[in-house]
Design a protein that fits this description.
Helices cover about 50% and strands about 10% of the residues. By secondary structure, it is of the alpha/beta class. Strands 3-2-4-1-5-6-7-8 form an 8-stranded mixed sheet, with helices on both faces. It is elongated and about 65 Å long. The protein binds guanosine-5'-diphosphate. Belongs to the GTP-binding SRP family. FtsY subfamily. One of its GO terms (cellular component) is plasma membrane.
Length: about 300
């Protein structure tokens, strides 16, 4: 968790100082709850999660008969853990072979980088991985993936100027023929408001399903933590269009808006499979609610 703490240092710095002020001493009273509300809102937890946490903390305080501000921390940690706990779910890699994982997200969210990190991670679990260069709009994305594949001895299925659905279809066919365990399919960045691009990614999904029944088994939305609670809107829009099975929250290391996880948990609780807390391969890690809460407060 030291690495996680370092990765969350911006959120920790900001929240930690404010919490230290809150939990420092004195009585638990309405002023303190008001201050707590302000702190949760500045951490980008959003109105709904903040209200929910405040109500939950009040209940815990009254049940436990807490009086002193220093005791508030434990109640808040427990409330937050209850809220975000349901987001913690391991990715089930056994349920199909090949398991087809499709990535979605806006430009620059970290899709291509996360695919490289995930491929490495799956290889350490002795899985045979194949990549589909489904971002057919940006030559750079295709090159980035190809380079990554060469360095790590992973096949990358790609087509120059091709169509994303066709690339993914070919990749799945190749994966079946080669007894690959996991297909990671990149897709072009898009905003949920770009309706023609949303239609394109829906088509990728349909065509994956033609290549292999039940595919794509996972549709993961990659989110940049810097957008804070706006992540909720993005999650809802992509989920409504595609039916997401999981989330990856990247760049938590670069932001103090780590509270967005609470907002997502409150408003669209889709499993948060991985969080990104830095640039290296090890910095994409399975999400642990307990570790996350501990890293924020301790
Ligand atoms: P894509 O357009 O969604 O494929 O985004 P990329 O994978 O190209 O990533 C955009 C930038 O974000 C790159 O410079 C990555 O190195 C960077 N990046 C991705 N994930 C993380 C992370 O968890 N932490 C940090 N600090 N940078 C990240």
């Amino acid at each position: 968790t030291e690495r996680l703490k370092a990765g969350l240092s911006k959120t920790r710095d900001k929240l930690g100082k404010q919490f230290a002020g809150l939990f420092g001493g004195g009585k638990i009273d309405e002023d303190l709850y008001e201050e707590l509300e302000a702190v949760l809102l500045t951490a980008d937890m959003g109105v709904s999660a903040t209200q929910h946490l405040l109500d939950d903390v009040r209940k815990r305080v009254s049940l436990r008969g807490l009086k002193d501000a220093s005791e508030l921390k434990g109640a808040l940690k427990d409330a937050l853990l209850d809220l975000i706990g349901p987001l913690e779910k391991p990715l089930d890699l056994q349920r199909a072979a090949p398991l087809v994982i499709m990535m979605a997200g806006v430009n620059g969210a970290g899709k291509t980088t996360s695919i490289g990190k995930l491929a490495k991670y799956f290889q350490t679990l002795d899985k045979r991985v194949l990549l589909a260069a489904g971002d057919t709009f940006r030559a750079a994305a295709r090159e980035q993936l190809a380079e990554w594949g060469t360095r790590n001895n992973v096949t990358v299925v790609s087509q120059q100027g091709g169509d994303a659905a066709a690339v993914c279809y070919d990749a799945i066919q190749a994966a079946i023929a080669r007894k690959i365990d996991i297909v990671l399919a990149d897709t072009a960045g898009r905003l949920p408001t770009q309706l023609h691009l949303m239609e394109e990614i829906k088509k990728v999904k349909r065509v994956c399903n033609k290549a292999l029944p039940d595919a794509p088994h996972e549709i993961l939305l990659v989110l940049d933590a810097n957008i804070g609670q706006n992540a909720v809107q993005q999650v809802k829009a992509f989920d409504d269009a595609l039916g997401l099975t999981g989330l990856i929250l990247t760049k938590l290391d670069g932001t103090a808006k780590g509270g967005a996880i609470a907002a997502i948990a409150r408003e669209r609780p889709i499993p948060m499979y991985f969080i990104g807390v830095g640039e290296t391969l090890d910095d994409l890690r399975p999400f642990s609610a307990r570790d996350y809460v501990d890293a924020l407060f301790d």
